[in-house]
Amino acid sequence: MPQHIIVLDYSPDWPVKYQKEKEKITAILKDNCIAVYHIGSTSVPGLAAKPIIDIMAAVRSLEQVDAVAKDFAKIEYEYLGELGIAGRRYLRKGGDERTYQIHIFHADDWDNIGRHLAFRDYMRAHKNKRDEYAKIKKELAKCFPYDIDGYCDGKEEFVQRMEERALSQYDGTWDQLYIAAGKAQYKRGIPPLIEAGTVSAALLTEKGTIYAGVCNDAACSLGMCAERDAIANMITNGESHIVKIAAVTPDGKAGMPCGACREFLMQMGKGAGEIEILCDYETKKAVKLKAFIPDWRRAKTS
User: Fold this and answer.
1) What is the C-alpha separation between 141 and 240, in angstroms, rounded?
2) Which residue, 14, 56, 2, 44, is CA-closest to 159?
3) CB-based contact 80:36 (threshold 8 Å)
4) What is the mean pLDDT of residues 107-136?
5) C-alpha span between 52 and 92 (Å, rounded)
6) Are 130 and 46 contacting, i.e. CB atoms less than 8 angstroms apart?
């Protein structure tokens, strides 16, 4: 039976369904999973869509994903390999009348990860294009109710045009820093007295380089935070001008620098107060370092 193409008005249930499925996916991928995102039309509030939840995951190893294919089968996913996109692992649930799709990429595959996030964020930010896209999809669903190829071909030109425009305007720095920090974030045991890696950080330099670091907790109290480890990595490689920095806690949330890290960052030179610090990854809320210690210069010169 051919897939029945149905386009529905946006439903607030879609992000709820995504969150529930995300929990199942992360439980299977475990430490291999770096980040999971709701993408596609159901991730855009106000956009009409086929009621299929598209999910994208960034992982450390695609081979480890292949190794747990049987676990995805247990939650009713078909494991279809690359299916036309090199470096992807594609899974779907529901057969031809699919309800969920998973697109898994290696964390270094920024071209694929970035284009999905850029398109999603662009459609979220531009109501006029969102409405235009909804109209196109509804009309195509009427013209091609059982022809998925005809439906997809009909919207291809619009999607390509919007993707190009989205990529030209997209600043994916925070996403890249979050993923870079996530790649570094895994527990290392250095028995018997040191533990490292549960918190990670990544920074962007003025030259456009990303450096990552992890927390190092030692029984002697001479360890260091992830932010300072990332800074040390940067200095080792001959750079010193930081533009942005993001820390990631074990729950995947953005973490704030401690007092010692704030002081260390402020001593990185003139203009250090302009360094942006990620406060919330979901909203991309960030503040400048000087907001944390506004009296720093006065304190140093009084």
Assistant:
1) 54
2) 44
3) no
4) 97
5) 10
6) yes
Query: What pLDDT was estimated at residue 301?
Result: 45
Q: Residue 15: enclosing H or E segment and its boundaries?
A: helix 13-29
Q: Is the pLDDT confidence value at 270 over 90?
A: no
pLDDT in tens, 252-262: 999 999 999 99
Name residue 77's amino acid: Y
3 state SS of 192 = coil
User: Are the C-beta atoms of residues 58 and 105 closer than 8 Å to each other?
Assistant: yes
d(C-alpha 115, C-alpha 138), whole Å:
24
Query: Quick one: tokens of 277?
Result: 């610090």
Q: Which helix (H) or strand (E) holds 56?
A: strand 53-59
Q: What is the pTM of this model?
A: 0.93
How far does CA 82 lie from the centroid of its chain? 20
Q: Determine which helix (DSSP H) or strand (DSSP E) holds 168, and give its type and residue range.
A: helix 148-169
